[in-house]
Amino acid sequence: MVVETSYHDRTPDDWDWEQAGRPLHARVREYRHTVGDWFRLLRDAGLQVLDIVEPEPVQGGCGRGWGRHYSARRQRMVPATIIWKAGKPALRRR
Question: Domain residue spans in the chain?
Answer without folding.
Answer: 13-87
